[in-house]
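Let us begin with a simple case.
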Amino acid sequence: MDLKDEIIKLILKEEFTPIQSYLEKIIEENQLVNANLVCWVPHEVASIVQIGWEDGLLDDIKEFLNDTAPKDIWKNHDEPGTPFRYNFHQHIRTKLVGNVSITLIVKDGKLFIGKYQDLYFYSPVFNHIPEQMIFCRIMKFD
């Protein structure tokens, strides 16, 4: 098994950013046929989300997060003098919808995910921290 590391650099313009094309680019550039991609997000207030691409699903998820973890309720976590005052709701939202890591399978040169699935980078602080990254460890099997 060969190991190689890649970093996906993102400039976020929205809360949910599609990332499947970045992963497909890694597959193509590294000529992967059978491999695993272990992807990890180093930022605390961000996650990787694997969801269906059905119409309205992202809007429903955003409403769910607003209802479940509303802003301005929890006041224990505080970062005075920053845009992140009382942002526990942003921390918990990233844990509710995604994970900081995901292992993806590359089979026969293609990302092996469900027919109706898509992958997103989720960051509720995208407007304050637009530059983000995903660390990918490639485990190549052929």
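The second case is a distinct protein. As before, the sequence precedes its structure tokens.
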Amino acid sequence: MLAFSGPQSIDRLSYDAAWYYIMGVSGLLWMVVMTWQVLLGIRPAFGRWIKDFFRINSFHKWLGIWTMMSLIFHPIAAVIAYGTWRLYVFSLDFSTSFDGRISVGKIAFDLILIVLITSVVSRKMLSYRSRHWIHLLSYPAFIGVWLHWWFTWTMIAEIPAVRIFWIIIGVVLLAAMIARIAYQYGYLKTTSKVLAHTQKTHDVFELQLSIPQQLPYRDGQFVYLQARAWWESHPFTILSYDQESSLMRIAYKVYGQFTQSLTELKDGESVFVDWPYGVFLDTIPDQSTPVVCIAAWIWITPFYQIISNYAATKEMKLFYLNKYKSDAVYGEELEWYLEANCVNILSREQKSIAPNDIVDTRISSSILEEQLWARLDSAHFYLCGWGAIIMSVTEMLVGLWVDPKRIDYEPFTM
């Protein structure tokens, strides 16, 4: 028999025992899953060892499904267990101490629900910055859930092992939240100086940064860039990095509030750089295997350094997709490195400017077959751009009997 004290606004001695335990276990499961979600959000904790952020994001999404299931199931189990709709998640009641503890859980539930909805359903309707600030609601929500579960499911006081486990979860979660807040303020990141900030095209800029320490960089990796403390950080592919001089170049296209704010950076200002991540080009084959790179617009950046380093010694070909020739940032340099192996496909240009320009058309199976007929069965393909173009080109290559195992891609979705 459980012992309760205080006013009995809900007859807690009359409950469905099975659903009561299901309610408690689902709440415990939810907190464990959310603790993992918070830990995964600390890039220095995992990113130093797991460079494949797509793998981490996939696991993050998988955990999100379990988070949603346990989050919704908990209040349903509570309603069934107690047999009353007074536990409904949107009705708050602080008339008694017990009802107050229940209401703390309801508030936490509503906050997490807002975070989940804005993270999934409203992803295309809200800006990254808006979702970033809304996401911070999860911190008070976690504290509320911990307190709610601790003080409401009184069986925890009767089971020492569960009590210790819950305390450990609370300590880990608190430490993780403190680490994420410190990380947001720039701690655990590399403070770098802007050496030069130049405009390359009408909407593409290049940052040259002085990195005060050597980074374990590999071709095709990206860093998270944060211009001011407490601002959100965004991923940008490293255009080039010289470990001897610690000079890093990053090219970015202005397409939102964050990149617009980057254009205001002046020479000598400081920015926060989070270490290189990604494994996109780690599978570059040996010298005997031809490499074909297909890049759209600003997403030429992962290929810039490998082309500049290996074009003279390795068989490489680039298909560079743009609307106009003027949009082809670093186009002249890439043509110099690759010569006839740099093919510009310009969808809105009406007149060829160079011999290797293919104008007034988009990339197609016929173009790929004509340009690569002797290499379709031996080359390794690397694609970078927005999701639709990657899917389209992948389908073209597979339709030309290219083995999918010889196709790697990095979509612009981080």
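Residues 17-184 form one domain. The chain has twelve helices and twelve strands.
Keep these points in mind for the review questions at the end of the chapter.
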